Amino acid sequence: MAIVMVDGVRKTEPITSVQQVTGFGYWQLSNATLNLDDASVGSNRTLDILVENWGRRYNLKGLYDGPVLLNGEVLQDWEILALQFKKKWIQSLSDWQEVSESSGPTLYRASLEV
Fold first, then answer.
1. Which domain of life is it from (predicted)?
2. Residue 57 domain boundaries
């Protein structure tokens, strides 16, 4: 699954039903287009594409083979950041806040007593 954000504002629809997995950002569409509104396009903008690795061993995952285009031009020199949820990093997270709703990627913290 791919989530597209421009300057930190989500531009892809949050998934609310299984029927949406045939739309932009999912593997059923190998050559998809996302049209951004005019307010999202311009110079000095930050484009983030968060690719979630939901796939298992033999499932497809990541971006489809081929370039990512913006207005027909190939985007290059990507900065790729791997989010590795290792114990030390998770324990270093702080400033947790209550959230009533979210339209973007969110980490939640919970305690479970067994």
1. Eukaryota
2. 1-83+92-114
